């Protein structure tokens, strides 16, 4: 398979591919985030934006002043989210022929490095909450990539091990994954890449 395209030019194409691949039929019900769902308005009453501090509707000048200096492209959290989406999109584009996601790859690598680790320990290693980690382990066990047994000395905990099938999957994925990782930071000049990775580790809390 040809290596993924480098640079920001690839991002738009990848996003379109993912949209076409995963889009839902128009009649498929969607579950919206409750935080994104507006409060119901009484029938016949207009929706009015209220200035909580003054108790009155803000003026156009107040609105303009509030957002004048705000640019999403200068917001670190927004940029990190976009970069994360772009990186995962490039991974999925490159590994369409494999039954694995970036988080599952991280889990398999971590189990391989820490055989017999409990699910709680694995969650700490890859920064995933307990429920999400348990769901992922269950899925990987069903696929035959992981095996799970009661941990020695703690009958309430599960120790997780990689199977031969799971290791074989890593053998196929990891050599090609280097191409994806190179493409993700390939838009940066060579002299920036080490500093970029160091800054990411600091922001992620894995390096002081």
From TrEMBL:
GO molecular function, one term: DNA-binding transcription factor activity
Family matches, as Gene3D superfamilies: Winged helix-like DNA-binding domain superfamily/Winged helix DNA-binding domain
Region (Disordered): 19-47
SMART domains reported in the protein's UniProt record: HTH_MARR (SM00347)
Keyword annotations: DNA-binding, Transcription, Transcription regulation
Keyword Chaperone: no
Pfam families: MarR_2
HTH marR-type domain segment(s): 73-205
Biased composition (Basic and acidic residues): 19-34
Keyword DNA-binding among UniProt keywords: yes
PROSITE patterns: HTH_MARR_2
SUPFAM superfamilies associated with the record: Winged helix' DNA-binding domain (SSF46785)
PANTHER family referenced in this protein's UniProt entry, alphabetically: TRANSCRIPTIONAL REGULATOR, MARR (PTHR42756), TRANSCRIPTIONAL REPRESSOR OF EMRAB OPERON (PTHR42756:SF1)
Protein name (Swiss-Prot/TrEMBL): DNA-binding MarR family transcriptional regulator
